[in-house]
Write a structure and sequence with these properties.
By secondary structure, the chain is mainly alpha-helical. The protein contains 6 helices and 3 strands; from the N terminus they run ααβαβαβαα. A 3-stranded parallel sheet has the order 1-2-3. It is globular and about 50 Å long.
């Protein structure tokens, strides 16, 4: 949904330290990924309402297969939270139908995903620093700046 760009940023950060993240934007495909992924996978589901039926089909399959699920969703009781192994809540300052742009959800989700990234990074800090540096050096060979603050 609207969190796709925020999730893409998380995926990009994880890729730069050698972690594979698959981003599903079609919730019906979540069901099939949940059905056939290896048992050592884990899932993170971003959902403000936690009540989207096509999403919940995949979530139920994850529960059935005992695959860990972290839900990033609004405060309060919702179906997604009931199925998740772990729940991190985002701001519920916006109504479903009359919000002005999902600002609170975006900022909350970005913060949570950044904290998740840093936590994973810190599990093997030196290895991830080296991976990040080596991948950046290869990719950024021809990238320059006249700004001494970012050189």
């Amino acid at each position: 949904g609207v969190q796709g760009d925020v999730a893409q940023t998380f995926k990009d950060k994880m890729l730069k330290i050698g972690k594979n993240v698959v981003l599903e934007t079609k919730m019906n495909e979540l069901y099939y990924r949940a059905s056939y992924c290896s048992l050592n996978c884990s899932f993170v589901i971003l959902s403000y309402s936690g009540e989207i039926e096509s999403e919940l089909r995949g979530v139920k399959k994850l529960k059935e297969r005992q695959i860990p699920l972290l839900a990033i969703t609004s405060y309060g009781d919702n179906t997604l939270s009931q199925y998740a192994n772990y729940v991190l809540n985002v701001s519920t300052r916006e109504r479903l139908k009359d919000n002005l742009g999902d600002f609170a959800m975006n900022i909350s989700t970005m913060l949570i995903l950044d904290i998740l990234y840093v936590s994973i990074f810190n599990t093997d800090y030196l290895k991830h620093v080296e991976r990040r540096r080596s991948s950046s050096q290869g990719f950024d060979l021809f990238r320059t700046s006249k700004n001494p603050n970012i050189k």
